[in-house]
Amino acid sequence: MTRFDAVVFDLDGTLCRHDQDADEVYFGAFERAGEDPFGAPADLWAALDGAPDPQDRLGYLRDGFGAVADRHGRRDADVDALARGFDAVVDNGAVSFLDGAEDGLAAARDRAAVGLMTNGPEHRQSTKLASLGLEDAFEAVVYAGDMPRRKPHADPFDRTVAELSVSASSTLYVGNSLEYDVAGAQGAGLPVAWCPEDGDADAGTYDPDYVLESLSELAAVLDGARG
């Protein structure tokens, strides 16, 4: 018998990866905006500060493009148009399962109630779920991006637990972010399994209850074979 009544998964970087070519998105933004390109995708990723605000995604992108424009002496660039262009080019359906994700999800569904809680808004994340064939895979889905407070705040964790009708202490949260998933879940009273997308298992000052190299290891955690 599993030690948990429910398992709740994060989506991006935990169950799935985004497969769209970075150059296609980055330089597509310039084409849409009618701007001469400058910089490279890596410049924008480095300039983006923290996780995006689902309520102001364009502002987040605008600030990132603004920092890249400053670095390349292009303060005349229309960063608002670049942000809109970037958002228009992104294909939210271009996703695929991370290695081990399907095994981990199947193991959870065989043993417990299963939920999904993601910081993204429904209009983006539901497209990803449909592309992955997961529209009916969860007994509760919470889109924290549509809530006043998102991870790492406790509110979305509390809502997910309530929708599953289980206790926080008997619900395992599975995610890839130390700041948002590990700290957020533990702050809401949930044990957490951390599965870093990049394979770097250095948790630093964080203390996840379980560390997984792949979600294929989740069955052993649920069955109590891993302490």
Automatic annotation (TrEMBL):
Keywords: Hydrolase, Magnesium, Metal-binding
Cofactors: Mg(2+)
GO MF terms held by the record: metal ion binding; phosphatase activity
Superkingdom of source: Archaea
Keyword presence, Protein transport: no
A GO BP entry: small molecule metabolic process
Keyword Nucleotide-binding (UniProt): no
Protein name as catalogued: Putative hydrolase of the HAD superfamily
Family listed: Belongs to the HAD-like hydrolase superfamily.
Coiled coil regions in record: none
Database matches in Pfam families: Hydrolase (PF00702)
Gene3D superfamilies: HAD superfamily/HAD-like (3.40.50.1000), Haloacid dehalogenase hydrolase-like domain (1.20.120.710)
PANTHER family: GLYCERALDEHYDE 3-PHOSPHATE PHOSPHATASE, N-ACYLNEURAMINATE-9-PHOSPHATASE
